[in-house]
Design brief:
mainly alpha; flat
């Protein structure tokens, strides 16, 4: 159960990166949802450490950059 759930989260994060590459708003929305889902997954499975906090720092900085460019992204699929 746990590896399958983590695999779904990794796949969703990859799909969101494809959406961001094509400058789509759904890519940013999916990236933010997977960020919170992965953070919750790591917290509930007690997998916190330096890499966890460093990954959160990188993701939050990336989300800030994405939200600055969000209005210029294409809202269509």
């Amino acid at each position: 159960m746990i590896p399958a759930l983590y695999g779904i989260l990794v796949a969703a994060q990859f799909i969101s990166c494809v959406g961001i590459w094509y400058f789509k708003q759904w890519g940013v929305q999916l990236y933010i949802m997977t960020f919170f889902a992965k953070t919750l997954f790591f917290l509930l499975s007690d997998q916190v450490g330096f890499s966890f906090y460093f990954g959160i720092l990188l993701s939050v900085s990336f989300i800030i950059i994405l939200l600055r460019h969000y209005p210029r992204m294409n809202p269509n699929l």
